[in-house]
Design brief:
This protein has about 170 residues and is of the alpha+beta class. It has 5 helices and 6 strands; from the N terminus they run H-E-E-H-E-H-H-E-E-E-H. Helices cover about 45% and strands about 25% of the residues. The model has no long low-confidence stretch (mean pLDDT about 85).
Length: about 170
Amino acid sequence: FTALDIASRKKAEEQLVRSELRLQKAQSLAHVGNWELALPRKKVWASEEALAIYGFERGSQEIPLDLVQRSPLPEFRPVLDEALDRLIRYNEPYEVEFKIHRASDNKIRALHAKAELFVSKDTIEVRVIGVVQDITERKQAEENLDRAKKEFQNYFESGSVGMSVTLPDMKFVE
């Protein structure tokens, strides 16, 4: 190796580290993690944020599939099993919303996951590659908005005083 080779290699390594840190920060800010399932070994590699979303220890990034599959609430297990089965059998990507008991604190979290099949040409290993996002706060906001709409609608419809809703141009809405 020449000094130029070593310098360019060091620069490439530094750029890779910076890029990895940017990705980790972006995932953390968006509560999005990525993961990869090695089908023959039934092991899941997970990014730092995916581990945090599920509440798993950050020490090991490769965890047994059955441990991950115990996290969803029981009513979501059939939907998730079918989605994975259809992905493996028919190469049908999936996108599902479900709830889990987070391992670290047993809190219920709402998640959105997408996955697709990936076959590596060099190793001929079949893997599932996916992303998971914690959407708990969004779901809570949606539920609060729905509740407020229903309360307003009930108040509006059951009021003993006549009411109407108009647009700024005075056209009636209700």
